[in-house]
Amino acid sequence: MADPGTARRPTPGRFAPESLAMTLLLTTLVAFGALSNNMYLPSLPAMARELGVPIASVLGTLSAFFIGFGVGQLFYGSLSDRFGRRPVLLAGLVGYTVASLVCAWAPDITTLVTARLAQGLAAAASQVLARAIVRDLLPPDRAARLMSVMAAVFTIVPGFAPILGGVLESAFGWRATFMVLTGIGVIVTLTTWRGFAESLKRLDDRALDGVILIRNYAALLRSPVFIGYTFAFSFMFAGMFAFHSASSFVFIDLLGFTPATYGLFFMVVVTGYLAGSIASARLTIRVGYARLVMIGGIVAIIGGIIMIALLTAGMRGWWVIVGPQFLFMIGTGLVMPNSIAGALAPFANKAGAASALFGFLQQATGAVMVWLIGISADGSEWPMAVGILTGAVLSLAAYTLARRGSTP
Predict the structure, then answer these.
(1) pLDDT of 261-298, one tens digit each?
(2) Angle at 250 between CA 315 and CA 304, to 5 degrees
(3) Which SS3 state, helix, strand or coil, does residue 6 take?
(4) Closest by CA position to 345, among listed 399, 407, 284
């Protein structure tokens, strides 16, 4: 069949593929979602008190972001296949900056949830297009290695985000966090404008054709490899956000720590993800991305089981949560970058659509988990712990589906 696409026109840009500058830019783009959520986690209890709403309503700001983040990716992938990665990415970054400013000035929970939905819709461009750009530029094994490096580097920023958010919360209140996110949006927008050249070699003139969109998504949904790796990632992501969404209430309201101290505990936990990502970057070529997904799933399950066992024994304290979650996050660092590579590898001709559907399913799964945590909140650690272990178990189960027909 003849290629219906048209060759792209050169665009300005100074960052070469696999250069440090490109890696840092892509890392920041992938980190937008985590940064937008992690930085304000220490403020969730204070937000509930100031806005006079229950825990479930405040957690609705997380779910709203996930919904927008997921739905937006369904459109950004195809838009970028049609018009190119660069213009769509820049439009998303501008929208993100505006939405973050609205969040900072939201007078009530309804406005804040709406603004977070818009923020998620805009931020989706950075997430899906960063992955598609990597797939544009590199073959699967090198893409997996770069994604592992990106995961290791970007972990540092979201890992410090709750510490910064805790300091901002203590000094200026929760609105300061969104002002900082607004400033980050401005800086990344200008950097992308100046440094990133279009990565898509050929535009797809039919990418927005409704029949083709349905056909592309149907083909992806029929693929056990795509579905298996996508949900291996998504369930692990959901388990991680069982911790993210509930941990501030556990550490601050239940255990009595300050927001800044909570940020330090969060940083310790996130270094587990950093360790897993570094190990993944070193082992992917030698071990293979499929085996690393399996190993990571097993490690995460062990962490979840330990947490449940300690709580069952009646133990309480920061170490009951931080230690097992550190182990869970090591497994997450092995699963996530390799699941992305496994899901996208067979779909070079529809990388944008594959990345978009991947992102939608990931965010939808996370939104459901946060909703479940909110409605099951009972003032104890149990909803969080059960969510963490459930995510790990389902992730490993999804991996078994991915192995059908997969030959990494």
Answers:
(1) 998 999 899 889 889 988 988 887 788 888 899 999 99
(2) 60
(3) strand
(4) 407
- By the 8 A CB rule, do 289 and 342 touch? yes
Q: Which two tokens stand for residue 301?
A: 């399950």
Q: Which residue has the tokens 């050169």?
A: 10
Query: 197's torsion region: left (phi>0), alpha (psi -120 to 50) or beta?
Result: beta
* Residues facing 282 on adjacent strands: none
Cβ–Cβ < 8 Å for 70, 361 = yes
pTM (two decimals): 0.79
- In the block, tokens 């401005």 appear at 186
203 and 380 Cβ atoms separated by less than 8 Å = no
> What count of other Cβ atoms lies within 10 Å of the Cβ of residue 139?
10
Q: Which of 123, 142, 165 is nearest to 30 (CA)?
A: 123
Distance CA 324, CA 2 (A): 54
What does DSSP assign to residue 136? H
Task: Give just the sign of the alpha carbon dihedral 153, 158, 164, 168.
Answer: positive
Report d(CA 33, CA 286) in Å as an integer.
30
Query: In this predicted model, what pLDDT tens digit does every residue of 30-41 receive, in sequence order?
Result: 888 888 988 998
